């Protein structure tokens, strides 16, 4: 190997740009941005006056509600995620080792399912209000009770299932921080709180921002919850315009508006941490000495950290279980096993498939650091915020065009019809998932790479390794944890995915989410509980694996 | 990088698996009617005739979009929806084909078929008024129009205007009474709502029982579904409200329908028509009644037990086609009137 360094002068360290070819990234973006681009370009079809009607009537509502939803979810998520992440990492208090992983459980709970369960519990006709009325002899309207189907309700539902994204990435950051940094801060006179606010938090800021970006995008693309609660936001507006008003042009215009908002959000997120690039300079990791919290402090920490788990997981899971005990005979049959198999098959396939493009994109930008690659990756990130149905239609358009073109060529030249080759297959479905969920994988891999010192790349390169060999031999082993995280996050996301699956799936192919939706849509919540609970149960497994992986990822801890 | 070959193999396998055959004894269906409410019937047909039936369910709009984009090569032979508005839209977009069948013509009344033979209704649903008997006397109720009267202020529950059944109701009114009269009525109704529209039709029933409102407008089979539910709690709730057939002195209760049409791209036209003919047969029609308490499209089929208890009612004789004609107009009108 040292021979090749001497013999091959082109392996000398050159300027950063140009070390990694840009072409693969461009091809990748070409394929994955096609669906999004298709939608955007339909904006330029002749307008039919529908957007005018929307501006006159409901567009302002969409904008205000969407913003309020994002703001509300964002604030609540930060409150639910960051302090518990810090507490379970740095302290020991009652149940803290359980909470460490239990705080991730709501990740397995799809937002639309938590919305169903809390509506069942807290709506006017639910057991809680019935109990109040019967106990105190009150009638409806004679007592105050929060309305679950409201903007506030939607904020709470989304926040309680989305906070784990921030918790996960933040805790990973806390765990990987060198304890030395904190010790130094303490010797310099910081108390525990100051060490948290002044040192740990800023160090974790990229992770928090990345998690929050995911949460914001999930919020913007959510359809199930807002639709169920009847909140007029962008996603519900797009559907109503597209389908109710029958105007795909206006729907595309709304989607394009939404995408501009997402793009601004992504740019802001990048810009906010543009100058901030932290790498640890010390690789010495002492064993974390966790402070024991006792008495009131311990109880306080216990309550604060268990609240998100109780509301985001235990209560809705309990409700699901209680429904299932009433309806399992109706829903659990041989077809049910097939649902489970299909769901897991899709999720597992995509979680692995998504790693390659994620690594490619993250590594290319890391090495090149130029505007083109950064912009391309930014664009790829948009997919996550685009409602599943829009992505699905965006995938259908080019695939159907491709299929029909191949077919007409074959008919003309070979007198033979190929029919549809890609449309209506699992391939189309996987492509849509990739457009939607690559950003999850990409963000995680990117965050992993960001923690590796650039000097490590330089060293490896100076030893004569080619760029992608560096990735494979140096980076991938180091960020193994991040890769696993990326896989598991995508797995859980695909399991929960509904709208794109609904539009694109092949004949006679259902998933748990589809079955849940069909029953819930027919207003049979209790029967929907069977498949819903199964989604949660299967989702828990990767969630627990995730947590163990993080705990083990800390160098120096056994 | 061992992942690459693995990925390729996986994709190749799923691609092959994903392809459906198009032999003569196959019918491929895009259905907006959910699996539980159609598959048993299709299975019965498949078993008897040996015809292979492939099914994808989903929202009608998405399926229509898919049909449109797949174009002439679409594998779908039949489009099944739960409302006529969507069939009308599919027809307008050139996605359906006209078929002629004596069996369909003889057994399904003209108002329940497309005038040019592009689609046929398969089951009927009525949009009815339900009320809390302890707070509302039956004599206070009459037509949908009456629900806009001031005495119902803050007492009416109805779901969102994005719901197709409400869109069809308003489309029917526009067809009968014109746009202006309908808009005035909708504004009156919005004023009378007990709460911003939320939930589905069953939720409106529950809201009445909880005391949030006194009357609601729902599709009749949701009440039927709760009355015959496997869950005791549902049955108890549903038994606390009463059903009222609207506008019996006038033009009759509003009717919407589930239906189907053969696609333009259909490769198995004959088989698809044969399946449609089966779906309007007395056997299939009584299945609709027994399973979901929907009303048959033909007169010579027995109603379900529950339907018999509810008795006969006068149905609006508006041709269902009109619901499609006025759908977009209805949506705009509801937006303007502030129906969320």
How would the blueprint of this fold be written?
The complex is a heterodimer of chains A (558) and B (340).
Chain A: H1 2-7, H2 23-41, H3 50-57, H4 59-90, E1 91-92, H5 96-102, H6 111-122, H7 127-136, H8 151-176, H9 179-187, H10 192-221, H11 224-229, H12 234-244, H13 248-272, E2 291-292, H14 295-331, H15 334-353, H16 355-368, H17 371-380, H18 388-414, H19 426-450, H20 454-462, H21 467-478, H22 480-496, H23 499-504, H24 512-521, H25 525-553
Parallel strand pairs in A: 1-2
Helix pairs in contact in A: 2-17, 2-18, 4-5, 4-8, 4-10, 4-14, 6-8, 6-14, 8-10, 8-14, 8-25, 9-10, 10-13, 10-19, 12-13, 14-25, 15-19, 15-22, 15-25, 16-19, 18-19, 19-22, 20-21, 22-25, 24-25
Chain B: H1 3-18, E1 26-31, H2 39-49, E2 52-57, H3 60-70, E3 78-81, H4 84-92, H5 102-107, E4 120-131, E5 156-157, H6 164-177, H7 179-192, H8 201-210, E6 215-219, H9 220-227, H10 232-238, E7 242-244, E8 255-262, H11 269-279, H12 282-292, H13 305-310, H14 321-325, H15 327-336
Parallel strand pairs in B: 1-2, 1-3, 5-6
Antiparallel strand pairs in B: 3-8, 4-6, 4-7, 4-8
Helix pairs in contact in B: 6-7, 6-15, 9-10
By DSSP (H or I, 4+ residues per run), the number of helices of chain A equals 25
Number of strands of chain B: 8
Q: Describe the biggest sheet of chain B?
A: 8 strands, mixed
Q: In one word, what is the shape of chain B? A: globular
- Low-confidence regions of chain B: 15-22
Order of H and E elements of chain B: HEHEHEHHEEHHHEHHEEHHHHH
Question: Mean pLDDT of chain A, as a whole number?
Answer: 83
Helix content of chain A: over 70%
The total count of strands of chain A amounts to 2
Rg of chain B, alpha carbons: 22 Å
Largest interface, per-chain counts?
Answer: A-B, 76 and 70 residues
The main sheet of chain A orders its strands as: 1-2
* Spatial gap, N to C terminus of chain B: 52 Å
Structural class of chain B: alpha/beta
Structural class of chain A: mainly alpha
Oligomer: heterodimer
Helix content, binned percent of chain B = 40-55%
List SSEs of chain A in N-to-C order.
Answer: HHHHEHHHHHHHHHEHHHHHHHHHHHH
Radius of gyration of chain A: 25 Å
Shape assignment of chain A: globular
